[in-house]
Amino acid sequence: MSREPRGRISSSERRPGKAGRATKNSGDQEPMMAIVHGVLPPREVILRFIADHPQQASKRELAKAFGLKGESRVELKNLLRELEEDGMVQKSRKSLIRPGALPPIAVLDITTRDKDGELIGRPTEWPEENGVAPAVLIKQSSSPAGRNGKGKAPVAGMGDRILAKIFPAVDRGGPAYSARIIRVIDKRLAATMGVFRETPGGGGRLMPIERRGEEMVIDPDYTGDAKDGDLIEVEVARLGRFGLPRAKVLSVVGSVASEKAISMIAIHAHGIPHVFPQAAMAEADAAKPATMSHRDDWRSLPLITIDPADAKDHDDAVYAEMDTSPDNPGGVVVTVAIADVSWYVRPGSALDREALKRGNSVYFPDRVVPMLPERISNDLCSLKEGVDRPALAVRMIFSKEGRKVGHAFHRIMMKSAAKLSYQQAQAAIDGKPDDKTEPMLEPILKPLWHAYEIMRRGRDRRQPLELDMPERKILLKPDGTVDRVFVPPRLDAHKLIEEMMIQANVAAAETLEKKRQVLIYRIHDGPTLAKQEVLREFLATLGISLVKGGNVRANSFNGILAKAEGTAHQTMVNEMVLRSQSQAIYSPDNIGHFGLNLMKYAHFTSPIRRYADLIVHRALVGSLGFGEGGITPDEEATLDDIAAEISTFERRAMAAERETVDRLIAHHLAGRVGEEFEARVGGVTKSGLFVTLPDYGADGFIPISTLGSDYFIYDEAHQALTGEKTGLGFRLGDSVTVRLAEAIPLAGALRFEMLSDGRAMPTAVRSFHKATRRNKTPARKAPGTRPPRGRR
To answer: What residue ranges in 506-649 does DSSP mark as E strands?
Structure first.
């Protein structure tokens, strides 16, 4: 279907005037300097235009704005490539932005008011390397009508989380941006979390756990059952013009020394909704089992689930068999069935609103914050063994060379033949079946593995990015303390399910495109030219080359990884390649998936825990005429906004999960201050070294001021710190011995001291060192001088 994308201004607003002056946008912009229509303007004009018109900053919109055609459009493309390579602009979704700038649409948290009482927000997620998050002035509508005079204009207040359209501010003396509210995502309660500290004479103080939090006074009558050192939830009882805010204790989470409280810190710090509203719970409790309406009966097909041993929900099942068609000798038919969440979670319902607010399930070592209530996620939608369950299934046909020759979707009723763990299925294939898997070996498991071998031929030919980054897991004791950190083995059973899910996702995107149905893609842009150049310089120090320009593909990186395999640099090269990659996001505009080397890709296989998959399910139901639960026109019109929201929520979940692991490990090691550990240099900065303890998966920092009595020079290309006098230093990937100097569990921070002597740097590093000394580049000082600024 065709419609004007949301948030895009009309052509009459975006085109420069006939006399060569740009038209203002919504009265928020300053006039552009004079330009000649149809002629590529100077770099400065392009950069200014991108900064002032973020909603028009795609290559196509820039060409339209300046009237560029033919050869001029080619010149614009080359100029934008140069600006990106120079680090002057970067890609954000489908637009270009200045580095450190906010994208045209962003999720904001309203945190304070200015002197005039206007609301001020800051981006929910902001990279630390970009410094302090910019302030944004929130413009509330003075009209009761919403945009275009339809509906009610969204109104936000303190503590709310909003999706907003971003504009550069007119008043250069105030916040850098202004924003118009698109939607209030979360009307957050005036509750916050912190550590209770008793004060003499009764009462206490709330010590914030968030970097942007503030201390609060808690009067004696409002302390509840809180004791010194407890992690508590409070609500603001009174705000005055002077002094600290006063608060009232709502609940006591527990002692801050308890590791069970640590995941709650991340939940509150990131504003993750963790209590379902009564309306959503009521809908979940009232839900009835799905009917056979518009469904094929596949209950006799022996589909099985293969999941982690501790999985509570099961949203995918698989089956494979030989293709009996004479047109496809040696081919296989692979069936993937996915829980039909769209039957239970309808657009606009209370369950749907809450699922969108969460965006995805969040997984902590001690708990899961689910996207949907357990009645839906762990019961009605979970593909339980031996129980009738509704599903959307795709039957895919592959040739013996691993090429997909066709697929078809069905809305079905299925009955899982068995629930297996990855280890259980793998053991059966490896010749150690148990009582459950032995009768399944020949009719079900072996055909699945045979199909995977065929599908792997297609994967090998496609050559997706093959990074070797082991994922560590934390195992907790019954009391919530850390038992051990381990790297689970990567089994063929994992790879089998992964490849079958990838192919099902591809089939979903292809089907919806063929039906001309709008959808949310999972997209992954290639590395920016600036990141490529950093990686190229680093690899050159190891004698490894990387192709230049826009010819880099996933298999280009695989060649680099292959050259490093088995060498002392293997881990270091894997980490640097990972750092060079862009972040995958959701978008209704498709640019393909660089890492998987796929042009059409949409998340379809996990609707229980990802909202993007639920949208794709609804799109399939609607476009294929599968009955109730299809996508609505209102949803189709807001896919841009939905994609922006769930991309932000995904980053929120990742940050919360990572911080919780950091806090747990810091808590676990807090009693071992002074002990020595074997570590590896995992990061090199101007301020010092980040080191990783492989046995614990813990990261910590060594300030440069504690490295030794030498002056250390930072070499970004070689990822090294080198002593000016001795020529000895430390480089990314080095194995070192360190002593734990400090552990701060609440912050998840570890500080170490270096015990190893630096090693002699390679010739290339020493050459850089000499050149730097000749150019008198300032060196970092050793102890006895003022410690450097930056993260410690």
So the answer is: 521-523, 585-587
Name beta bridge partners: 722.
Answer: 713, 729
Contacts 24+ apart (CB under 8 A), 486-489: none
State both tokens at 57.
């900053």
SS3 category, 265: helix
The answer to whether 422 and 310 have CB atoms below 8 angstroms apart is no
Residue 635 token pair: 């949803």
Of 16-25, 91-100, 363-372, 612-621, which range is least confident? Answer: 16-25
8 Å CB contact between 619 and 512: yes
Burial of 158 (0-12, 13-18, 19+ CB in 10 A): middle
Residue 350 confidence class, pLDDT cut points 50, 70, 90: very high
Distance of alpha carbon 617 from alpha carbon 342, whole angstroms: 6
Query: Among 67-81, 98-112, 554-568, where is mean pLDDT lowest?
Result: 98-112
CA distances from 224 to 203, 230, 261 (A): 10, 12, 18
Q: Which residue has the higher pLDDT, 379 or 70?
A: 379
Quote the CA–CA distance of 171 and 321 in Å, as a whole number: 67
DSSP run (H or E) holding 692: strand 688-693
State the Cα–Cα distance between residues 373 and 354, nearest whole angstrom. 10
DSSP H helix total and E strand total for the chain: 18, 34
Average pLDDT, the chain: 83
pTM of the model: 0.76
Q: How far apart are CA 70 and CA 58, in angstroms?
A: 17
Strands 177-186 and 119-123: what pairing? unpaired
| Residues 6+ positions from 563 with CB-CB distance below 8 Å | 544
Where residue 463 falls (left for φ over 0; alpha for ψ -120 to 50; beta otherwise) is: left
Give CA–CA dist 561/465, Å, rounded.
10
